[in-house]
Design brief:
Layout lengths: L1 H21 L7 E10 L8 E8 L2 E6 L1 H7 L4 E4 L4 E4 L1 E2 L5 H9 L1 E2 L11 H12 L10 E6 L12 H4 L8 E5 L4 E4 L1 H6 L12 E5 L6 E7 L3 H7 L5 H17 L2 E9 L1 H13 L5 E7 L45 E9 L35 H14 L2 E6 L2 H18 L7 E4 L8 H6 L3 E4 L3 H4 L1 H7 L2 H4 L6 H5 L5 E2 L10 H10 L16 H7 L2 H6 L17 E4 L16 E6 L2 E5 L2
Parallel strand pairs: 1-4, 1-5, 6-13, 7-8, 8-9, 13-14, 14-15, 15-16, 16-17, 17-18, 18-19
Antiparallel strand pairs: 1-2, 2-3, 5-20, 9-10, 10-12, 11-12, 20-21, 21-22
Helix pairs in contact: 3-8, 10-11
């Protein structure tokens, strides 16, 4: 009986093996892209190839079309029809979670991204938006992107203006810089902001002249935490709706990897939950705001090539509650945490950036001689934060616009780097609009990567001539001199400050033309190829991902973008008219222009 059972089992195993062998193995499909301008982004000069092959989300061949066909005789052929293929765009700095609000909110941007050029238009735009379907997702009438530097009235709107939108519902308008916001009377009351409310540390509540009554305009840390809370949905369905809208907007501009450049607790939690339950189509790399350093936040440990090195040292505080699959170099559900965001000052066009010389035109409520202000009034506070990051090997994104803020960065980081070592940390200076050439040597010594906001030349070039003077305005947001000095330079949109349009940032970096048509610092113009490197391979390097992304090379991810025209051969003034035709992530199409 026992032998019979064994025979039956053996027969079943053999039959199963034969059946398995009889079924043909499923082979992965190979796709060959050809027939267009395929630019690898490898090297210092543009390199074109006839074809690339993709299999299982990986680039498996780069070179001549005939050899690709010979290597993969049954491949699917994708004719680019003279379009341009590049590596998928890697956003060096923007705020991914803010893109949902940008996609959903009332568009208060000026031309060419919107139509708001005066306060009456702003009011009407908010009124029209309030008639739409998304009001109930936050309970606020909200819009993003107004710019006092461009508005006909030359000022911020106030609560008296926004009261014309509604006297029963709360209204908020967020400045293009993200460093200011304006609320109506209902909104101020809901947020508990009254004449008795004191200015928070690092922020200002602007007042009606001659009184303590708030006029509705909030600066820096009086504005940012408030509007982050207001425009962040609370219900799970609404949270996911915002994130899906953010994702749709990002892939439509060719991003295959996007940055969340300042994640507070709720934003990080929302990203984690979405990654767990749905998974992102693109990769989202996040930097947690320094204010979260003492919270039990899932995901904050260490980053880049320094994963878990901190565990080897006895001086590290127990961050076990903050270690998770979200930290370090690997994505889970399309999300990872890469490090810490630290903000040293404010907005240069908004005149809250910390400058070594006074602004020629001080903002409302400030006296002659005003030069902005720091986020850290004590160097010792910043030094403790830098030390925490260095000890735990956290990569830092450091927001500094004013030259005084950049001086503080250098002054405070030097002794910390000397104490803990500074090998391959790739800390990043974000924005650097008032960066001076005299500061380059110190930044180079600290191995800082400058990520420059060169779009300031277009959006506010004319405005800077008024507030800092003609000579300084010509030197804003440098790029070429940094490349010449040997820095790995990236360029960014800082969306939702502007639309996440990387062709616009390439255009601005190449041409440096202001709204009025003046070239702002011709000696800082870079080539289209240099600009494209800044949003592909150099950005991948900035994020410790250059081995997987950023160029078309065998073994790298098939993260690709197809453009309507070639940025390197088109008239440079038409670069910002180039459209993204298709975005491809790991070999799969995630966006197609309709």
């Amino acid at each position: 009986m026992r032998i019979s059972k064994i025979i039956v089992i053996l027969v079943a195993i053999i039959a199963g093996f034969i059946a398995t062998q009889a079924q043909p193995l499923q082979k992965s499909t190979v796709t060959i892209y050809y027939g267009g301008n395929i630019v690898t982004m490898e090297g210092d000069k543009p390199t074109y190839v006839e074809a690339i092959a993709v299999k299982d989300g990986i680039i498996t061949y780069v070179g001549k079309l005939s050899q690709a066909k010979n290597k993969y005789k049954k491949a699917q052929m994708h004719d680019l029809k003279n379009k341009t293929m590049l590596p998928g765009f890697f956003g060096p700095h923007l705020h991914f979670t803010g893109l949902g609000g940008q996609a959903i909110s009332a568009n208060l941007l000026a031309e060419p991204d919107g139509k708001v050029g005066d306060i009456p238009t702003l009011i009407n735009t908010l009124k029209e938006w309030a008639k739409g379907p998304d009001l109930n997702r936050t309970g606020w009438i909200f819009g993003m992107g107004y710019d006092d530097a461009v508005l006909k009235e030359g000022r911020h709107p106030t609560k008296f203006d926004l009261d014309k939108v509604s006297t029963t519902l709360p209204v908020i308008a967020i400045h293009i810089s993200g460093h200011f916001a304006v609320m109506n009377s209902v909104g101020l009351k809901m947020m508990g902001i009254t004449a008795k409310t004191k200015d928070p540390k690092g922020g200002i509540i602007r007042r009606v002249k001659g009184s303590q009554e708030p006029n509705g305009v909030l600066e820096e840390l009086a504005a940012i935490p408030a509007y982050m809370s207001i425009i962040s949905p609370k219900k799970k369905d609404d949270i996911f709706y915002f994130l899906e809208k953010a994702q749709e907007l990002a892939v439509s501009f060719g991003y295959t990897t996007v940055q969340e450049g300042r994640a507070f607790g709720d934003a990080h939690t929302n990203l984690v939950n979405y990654a767990k339950e749905k998974g992102f189509k693109l990769d989202v790399v996040s930097y947690l705001d320094y204010s979260m350093k003492d919270e039990n936040v899932e995901g904050f440990s260490c980053s880049g090539n320094h994963i878990n090195k901190a565990e080897k040292h006895d001086y590290v505080v127990d961050y076990s509650k903050m270690k998770s699959p979200w930290t370090g170099g690997r994505y889970s559900g399309g999300y990872r945490v890469a490090g810490m965001k630290i903000t040293l000052d404010g907005s240069p066009q908004g005149r809250t950036a910390w400058s070594k010389t006074p602004y020629l035109v001080p903002p409302d409520g400030q006296k002659e001689g005003y030069s902005g202000y720091p986020a850290f009034s004590k160097d010792s506070d910043l030094e403790a934060l830098f030390a925490l990051a260095f000890k735990n090997n956290w990569q830092m994104l450091i927001h500094a616009n004013g030259n005084a803020a950049i001086d503080q960065l250098i002054r405070v980081m030097k002794p910390v780097a000397k104490k803990y070592g500074n090998e391959d940390r790739r800390n990043v200076l974000v924005h650097g609009v008032f960066l001076e050439r005299e500061q380059y040597a110190d930044l180079k010594e600290l191995h800082i990567i400058p990520s420059m906001f060169t779009m300031h030349t277009f959006y506010w070039g004319d405005w800077y001539k008024k507030i800092i003077g003609e000579k300084r305005a010509q030197r804003i947001a440098p790029a070429k001199s940094l490349l010449d000095a040997g820095f790995p330079v990236t360029i960014h949109t800082d969306a939702p400050v502007a639309l996440p349009n990387l062709m616009q940032i390439v255009w601005a970096s190449v041409n440096r033309v202001s709204r009025s048509g003046e070239v702002m610092g011709a000696d800082e113009c870079i080539t289209p190829y240099q600009a494209l490197k800044a949003i592909t391979i150099t950005s991948a390097y900035q994020h410790f991902e250059e081995k997987q992304k950023g160029s078309l090379k065998v073994g790298k991810l098939a993260d690709l973008v197809i453009l309507s025209d070639n940025p390197m051969t088109i008239n440079p003034m038409l670069i910002n008219k180039i459209q993204v035709m298709k975005t491809i992530k790991k070999g799969e199409s995630i966006y197609r222009l309709k």
